[in-house]
Amino acid sequence: MLTQDELTRYDRQIMMKGIGKDGQEKLKKARVFVAGAGGLGSPISIYLAVAGVGTIRLADHDTIELSNLNRQILHGDGDLGKRKVDSATQKLQNMNKDITVAAVAEMITEQSVSKLVGDCDLIVDATDNLPTRYVLNRAAIEKNIPFFHGAVYGFEGRATTIIPGKTACLWCIYQGRITEGKFPVIGVAPAVIGCLQATEVIKYITGIGELLTD
Fold first, then answer.
1. Which of 41, 47, 90, 213 could be stapled to 198 by a disulfide with Cβ–Cβ 3.0 to 4.6 Å?
2. Where are the alpha helices (DSSP H) in 121-168?
3. What are the boundaries of each domain within the chain?
4. Mean pLDDT score of the chain, rounded to an integer?
5. pLDDT per residue over 4-24, tens digit each?
6. Could you tell me the CATH superfamily of domain 4-206?
């Protein structure tokens, strides 16, 4: 049940046709796994937090470096050297005290992914390399939960929603290609793509609109 504070906080989105109080309740009950707290993970987690997603589980093993700050908007100069998940947790809880942010500073691998995702309802890809994305893709298939993919390069980006058993999987889309190493990116690109991913998650949870599937 929504509290009076929650009814006030989310008033503008509760007004939306297709969301209402029932949709807001669904957001409150949702458990979302966000893989990465950097360029994509920042806008994704920010907008899921302020939308009222009840539990956000973040996984990222990196610490904050100066070169991150042109695009990773959860972090600033005062956070240099901190673990990204610690910085992210502090910022997200300051934005919305009524949600739960469960953060883990652990690398996502074949061995760790199932435990990290746990009982989450869906997986959001905010990583920066295809090998890790394939690990997440397999986890989504095994758990039969949706996978929200996003990627950026320079000024460009892409986002798609993958539903196991209904759409092509990520391996099918990229045909097993592997890319590694540093790549160029302007800060606005992950902001746009991350917001699209967050929108897709909100649409899926509430059942509003059409998803960006293949």
1. 47
2. 130-143
3. 4-206
4. 97
5. 999 999 999 999 999 999 999
6. NAD(P)-binding Rossmann-like Domain (3.40.50.720)
